Amino acid sequence: MDLAGKTAIVTGAGRGLGRAVSLAFAESGANTVLFSRSRESLLDTEREAQRKGARTLAVSGDVTQPDQVQAMAERATQAFGRVDVLVNNAAIIGPSRFLQDADPAAWRSIVETNLNGPYLCSRAVLPYMLERGSGRIINVSSGLARMSFPRFCGYCSTKAGLEQMTRCLAAELSGSGILVCALDPGVMDTPMQDAIRELGEEKLGTELYSRFRGFKDKGMLREPEQVAELAVYLASAAGLERNGGVYSLSDMKA
Ligand code: NAP
Fold first, then answer.
1. What's the CATH code, domain 7-186+224-249?
2. Structural domain boundaries of the chain?
3. Which residue, judged by its Cα, is nearest atom 43 of ligand 1?
4. Is the pTM of the predicted complex or chain greater than 0.90?
Protein backbone atom coordinates (compact mmCIF):
# COMPACT_ATOMS: atom_id res chain seq x y z
CA MET A 1 0.00 0.00 0.00
CA ASP A 2 1.28 3.39 -0.98
CA LEU A 3 1.25 6.21 1.57
CA ALA A 4 3.81 8.35 -0.29
CA GLY A 5 3.48 12.03 0.54
CA LYS A 6 1.29 11.36 3.59
CA THR A 7 2.33 12.19 7.13
CA ALA A 8 1.56 9.76 9.95
CA ILE A 9 1.99 10.31 13.67
CA VAL A 10 2.44 7.19 15.80
CA THR A 11 2.36 7.40 19.60
CA GLY A 12 4.24 4.79 21.60
CA ALA A 13 6.63 4.44 18.66
CA GLY A 14 9.64 3.27 20.67
CA ARG A 15 8.76 -0.40 21.03
CA GLY A 16 6.16 -3.09 20.48
CA LEU A 17 3.30 -2.41 18.10
CA GLY A 18 4.09 1.33 17.83
CA ARG A 19 7.57 0.55 16.53
CA ALA A 20 6.21 -1.99 14.02
CA VAL A 21 3.50 0.44 12.82
CA SER A 22 6.07 3.24 12.44
CA LEU A 23 8.32 1.02 10.34
CA ALA A 24 5.39 -0.21 8.23
CA PHE A 25 4.36 3.40 7.55
CA ALA A 26 7.96 4.24 6.67
CA GLU A 27 8.07 1.25 4.30
CA SER A 28 4.86 2.52 2.64
CA GLY A 29 6.50 5.88 1.94
CA ALA A 30 4.84 8.00 4.63
CA ASN A 31 6.66 10.77 6.48
CA THR A 32 6.63 9.28 9.95
CA VAL A 33 6.42 11.18 13.24
CA LEU A 34 7.48 9.10 16.22
CA PHE A 35 6.29 10.03 19.71
CA SER A 36 6.96 8.38 23.09
CA ARG A 37 8.86 9.12 26.27
CA SER A 38 12.15 7.17 26.10
CA ARG A 39 14.48 8.97 23.71
CA GLU A 40 16.82 6.03 23.16
CA SER A 41 14.18 3.59 21.90
CA LEU A 42 12.61 6.34 19.81
CA LEU A 43 15.92 7.08 18.08
CA ASP A 44 16.39 3.38 17.44
CA THR A 45 13.00 3.22 15.68
CA GLU A 46 13.91 6.39 13.78
CA ARG A 47 17.21 4.95 12.50
CA GLU A 48 15.38 1.85 11.23
CA ALA A 49 12.66 3.97 9.57
CA GLN A 50 15.28 6.11 7.85
CA ARG A 51 16.96 2.97 6.56
CA LYS A 52 13.68 2.31 4.75
CA GLY A 53 14.05 5.69 3.06
CA ALA A 54 11.40 7.54 5.08
CA ARG A 55 11.52 11.14 6.22
CA THR A 56 11.10 11.05 9.98
CA LEU A 57 10.67 13.26 13.01
CA ALA A 58 11.30 11.80 16.48
CA VAL A 59 9.77 13.76 19.35
CA SER A 60 10.18 12.56 22.92
CA GLY A 61 7.15 13.34 24.97
CA ASP A 62 4.30 12.15 27.08
CA VAL A 63 0.75 11.69 25.72
CA THR A 64 -0.63 12.77 29.10
CA GLN A 65 0.97 16.23 28.88
CA PRO A 66 -1.12 18.69 26.81
CA ASP A 67 1.82 21.06 26.09
CA GLN A 68 4.09 18.26 24.90
CA VAL A 69 1.36 16.81 22.66
CA GLN A 70 0.55 20.22 21.21
CA ALA A 71 4.24 20.95 20.53
CA MET A 72 4.63 17.58 18.79
CA ALA A 73 1.66 18.25 16.47
CA GLU A 74 3.03 21.70 15.64
CA ARG A 75 6.50 20.31 14.90
CA ALA A 76 4.96 17.62 12.68
CA THR A 77 3.14 20.19 10.52
CA GLN A 78 6.17 22.47 10.43
CA ALA A 79 8.33 19.56 9.25
CA PHE A 80 5.96 18.01 6.72
CA GLY A 81 3.23 20.60 6.09
CA ARG A 82 0.34 18.26 6.95
CA VAL A 83 -0.92 15.48 9.21
CA ASP A 84 -2.88 12.73 7.45
CA VAL A 85 -2.90 9.93 9.99
CA LEU A 86 -2.77 9.70 13.77
CA VAL A 87 -2.30 6.31 15.41
CA ASN A 88 -3.16 6.53 19.11
CA ASN A 89 -1.16 3.49 20.17
CA ALA A 90 0.62 4.46 23.42
CA ALA A 91 -0.89 2.70 26.42
CA ILE A 92 -0.01 1.08 29.71
CA ILE A 93 -1.41 -2.01 31.40
CA GLY A 94 -1.94 -0.12 34.67
CA PRO A 95 -2.68 -1.45 38.13
CA SER A 96 -2.88 -5.23 37.83
CA ARG A 97 -4.92 -5.44 41.01
CA PHE A 98 -8.51 -5.94 42.07
CA LEU A 99 -10.24 -2.56 41.96
CA GLN A 100 -10.37 -2.19 45.75
CA ASP A 101 -6.60 -2.71 45.94
CA ALA A 102 -5.68 -0.43 43.02
CA ASP A 103 -3.68 2.59 44.07
CA PRO A 104 -5.50 5.83 43.11
CA ALA A 105 -2.34 7.26 41.50
CA ALA A 106 -1.93 4.15 39.32
CA TRP A 107 -5.63 4.29 38.39
CA ARG A 108 -5.33 7.97 37.47
CA SER A 109 -2.23 7.21 35.41
CA ILE A 110 -3.95 4.56 33.27
CA VAL A 111 -6.91 6.86 32.58
CA GLU A 112 -4.52 9.71 31.75
CA THR A 113 -2.47 7.53 29.38
CA ASN A 114 -5.02 5.23 27.72
CA LEU A 115 -8.00 7.58 27.48
CA ASN A 116 -6.87 11.20 27.92
CA GLY A 117 -3.77 10.58 25.76
CA PRO A 118 -5.83 9.74 22.64
CA TYR A 119 -8.14 12.69 23.44
CA LEU A 120 -5.19 15.12 23.68
CA CYS A 121 -3.47 13.79 20.56
CA SER A 122 -6.70 13.81 18.51
CA ARG A 123 -7.50 17.33 19.72
CA ALA A 124 -4.02 18.51 18.72
CA VAL A 125 -4.14 17.17 15.13
CA LEU A 126 -7.80 17.85 14.32
CA PRO A 127 -7.38 21.55 13.39
CA TYR A 128 -4.83 20.53 10.72
CA MET A 129 -6.99 17.68 9.42
CA LEU A 130 -10.15 19.83 9.39
CA GLU A 131 -8.33 22.54 7.43
CA ARG A 132 -7.47 20.00 4.70
CA GLY A 133 -10.83 18.21 4.94
CA SER A 134 -9.21 14.80 5.28
CA GLY A 135 -7.52 12.54 7.81
CA ARG A 136 -7.64 9.24 9.66
CA ILE A 137 -7.48 8.60 13.38
CA ILE A 138 -6.75 5.01 14.37
CA ASN A 139 -7.20 4.22 18.07
CA VAL A 140 -5.48 1.04 19.21
CA SER A 141 -7.95 -0.78 21.42
CA SER A 142 -8.01 -4.32 22.81
CA GLY A 143 -10.34 -7.30 23.04
CA LEU A 144 -10.45 -6.41 26.75
CA ALA A 145 -12.61 -3.39 25.82
CA ARG A 146 -15.42 -5.93 25.46
CA MET A 147 -14.44 -8.63 28.00
CA SER A 148 -14.31 -8.58 31.79
CA PHE A 149 -10.87 -9.52 33.04
CA PRO A 150 -10.35 -9.60 36.83
CA ARG A 151 -7.37 -7.46 37.96
CA PHE A 152 -7.41 -5.49 34.67
CA CYS A 153 -10.42 -3.30 35.46
CA GLY A 154 -8.55 -0.06 34.71
CA TYR A 155 -7.22 -1.36 31.39
CA CYS A 156 -10.58 -2.86 30.33
CA SER A 157 -12.44 0.34 31.30
CA THR A 158 -10.08 2.70 29.48
CA LYS A 159 -10.11 0.59 26.30
CA ALA A 160 -13.94 0.41 26.43
CA GLY A 161 -13.93 4.19 26.84
CA LEU A 162 -11.59 4.53 23.88
CA GLU A 163 -13.92 2.50 21.65
CA GLN A 164 -16.83 4.72 22.71
CA MET A 165 -14.69 7.82 22.06
CA THR A 166 -14.01 6.38 18.60
CA ARG A 167 -17.73 6.06 17.84
CA CYS A 168 -18.58 9.51 19.22
CA LEU A 169 -15.72 11.25 17.42
CA ALA A 170 -16.60 9.52 14.14
CA ALA A 171 -20.16 10.83 14.51
CA GLU A 172 -18.96 14.33 15.39
CA LEU A 173 -16.69 14.40 12.35
CA SER A 174 -19.23 12.91 9.94
CA GLY A 175 -19.03 14.71 6.60
CA SER A 176 -15.70 16.36 7.45
CA GLY A 177 -13.59 13.95 5.41
CA ILE A 178 -11.95 12.65 8.58
CA LEU A 179 -12.51 8.98 9.43
CA VAL A 180 -11.99 7.42 12.86
CA CYS A 181 -11.69 3.78 13.85
CA ALA A 182 -10.49 1.45 16.56
CA LEU A 183 -7.96 -1.31 15.87
CA ASP A 184 -8.16 -4.48 17.94
CA PRO A 185 -4.73 -6.13 17.56
CA GLY A 186 -5.34 -9.40 19.41
CA VAL A 187 -2.59 -10.62 21.74
CA MET A 188 0.92 -9.77 20.52
CA ASP A 189 4.47 -10.63 21.43
CA THR A 190 5.56 -7.23 22.74
CA PRO A 191 7.22 -5.84 25.90
CA MET A 192 3.70 -5.25 27.31
CA GLN A 193 3.07 -9.02 27.33
CA ASP A 194 6.55 -9.61 28.82
CA ALA A 195 5.69 -7.15 31.60
CA ILE A 196 2.38 -8.89 32.33
CA ARG A 197 4.04 -12.32 32.62
CA GLU A 198 6.75 -10.80 34.83
CA LEU A 199 4.07 -9.84 37.37
CA GLY A 200 4.10 -13.56 38.17
CA GLU A 201 1.62 -15.91 39.75
CA GLU A 202 1.55 -14.08 43.07
CA LYS A 203 0.24 -10.82 41.63
CA LEU A 204 -1.86 -12.24 38.78
CA GLY A 205 -3.33 -15.25 40.57
CA THR A 206 -2.84 -18.81 39.30
CA GLU A 207 -5.60 -18.78 36.66
CA LEU A 208 -4.70 -15.47 35.04
CA TYR A 209 -0.96 -16.16 35.18
CA SER A 210 -1.41 -19.53 33.40
CA ARG A 211 -3.60 -17.87 30.81
CA PHE A 212 -0.93 -15.26 29.94
CA ARG A 213 1.90 -17.83 30.21
CA GLY A 214 -0.15 -20.05 27.85
CA PHE A 215 -0.41 -17.31 25.21
CA LYS A 216 3.39 -17.33 24.98
CA ASP A 217 4.05 -21.04 25.47
CA LYS A 218 1.40 -22.16 22.98
CA GLY A 219 2.61 -19.68 20.33
CA MET A 220 -0.65 -17.71 20.45
CA LEU A 221 1.01 -14.28 20.44
CA ARG A 222 0.97 -12.44 17.12
CA GLU A 223 4.00 -10.67 15.79
CA PRO A 224 3.37 -6.90 15.92
CA GLU A 225 4.56 -6.62 12.30
CA GLN A 226 1.47 -8.60 11.21
CA VAL A 227 -0.84 -6.14 13.00
CA ALA A 228 1.12 -3.17 11.62
CA GLU A 229 -0.11 -4.17 8.14
CA LEU A 230 -3.67 -3.60 9.37
CA ALA A 231 -2.74 -0.08 10.51
CA VAL A 232 -1.33 0.70 7.06
CA TYR A 233 -4.46 -0.77 5.46
CA LEU A 234 -6.72 1.41 7.62
CA ALA A 235 -4.63 4.48 6.75
CA SER A 236 -4.86 3.76 3.02
CA ALA A 237 -7.60 4.72 0.59
CA ALA A 238 -8.98 1.15 0.46
CA GLY A 239 -9.34 0.65 4.21
CA LEU A 240 -11.76 1.95 6.84
CA GLU A 241 -15.17 1.49 5.27
CA ARG A 242 -17.02 1.46 8.62
CA ASN A 243 -16.45 4.89 10.15
CA GLY A 244 -16.33 4.53 13.95
CA GLY A 245 -15.92 0.74 13.72
CA VAL A 246 -13.58 -1.68 15.45
CA TYR A 247 -11.25 -3.49 13.04
CA SER A 248 -9.19 -6.64 13.48
CA LEU A 249 -6.90 -8.59 11.14
CA SER A 250 -9.85 -10.52 9.69
CA ASP A 251 -11.19 -7.23 8.22
CA MET A 252 -8.21 -6.84 5.91
CA LYS A 253 -9.09 -7.43 2.29
CA ALA A 254 -6.52 -9.20 0.17
P1 NAP B 1 4.34 -1.77 24.86
O2 NAP B 1 5.23 -2.79 24.31
O3 NAP B 1 4.27 -1.62 26.33
O4 NAP B 1 4.68 -0.34 24.21
C5 NAP B 1 3.96 0.79 24.62
C6 NAP B 1 4.52 2.05 23.99
O7 NAP B 1 3.77 3.17 24.50
C8 NAP B 1 5.98 2.29 24.32
O9 NAP B 1 6.64 2.81 23.18
C10 NAP B 1 5.93 3.35 25.42
O11 NAP B 1 7.12 4.11 25.37
C12 NAP B 1 4.69 4.16 24.98
N13 NAP B 1 4.07 4.90 26.06
C14 NAP B 1 3.56 4.44 27.23
N15 NAP B 1 3.10 5.45 27.97
C16 NAP B 1 3.32 6.58 27.26
C17 NAP B 1 3.08 7.96 27.50
N18 NAP B 1 2.53 8.39 28.65
N19 NAP B 1 3.42 8.86 26.56
C20 NAP B 1 4.00 8.45 25.40
N21 NAP B 1 4.25 7.17 25.11
C22 NAP B 1 3.92 6.25 26.05
O23 NAP B 1 2.84 -2.03 24.37
P24 NAP B 1 2.31 -2.85 23.07
O25 NAP B 1 2.05 -4.23 23.48
O26 NAP B 1 3.13 -2.54 21.89
O27 NAP B 1 0.88 -2.17 22.93
C28 NAP B 1 0.56 -1.26 21.89
C29 NAP B 1 -0.93 -1.03 21.90
O30 NAP B 1 -1.61 -2.27 21.67
C31 NAP B 1 -1.48 -0.50 23.21
O32 NAP B 1 -2.53 0.42 22.96
C33 NAP B 1 -2.03 -1.75 23.89
O34 NAP B 1 -3.03 -1.44 24.83
C35 NAP B 1 -2.58 -2.49 22.69
N36 NAP B 1 -2.74 -3.92 22.88
C37 NAP B 1 -1.66 -4.72 23.13
C38 NAP B 1 -1.85 -6.09 23.26
C39 NAP B 1 -0.71 -7.04 23.47
O40 NAP B 1 -0.94 -8.24 23.58
N41 NAP B 1 0.53 -6.56 23.53
C42 NAP B 1 -3.15 -6.64 23.16
C43 NAP B 1 -4.23 -5.79 22.93
C44 NAP B 1 -4.01 -4.43 22.77
P45 NAP B 1 7.72 4.92 26.61
O46 NAP B 1 7.49 4.08 27.83
O47 NAP B 1 9.13 5.14 26.24
O48 NAP B 1 6.94 6.20 26.64
1. 3.40.50.720
2. 7-186+224-249, 191-221
3. 142
4. yes
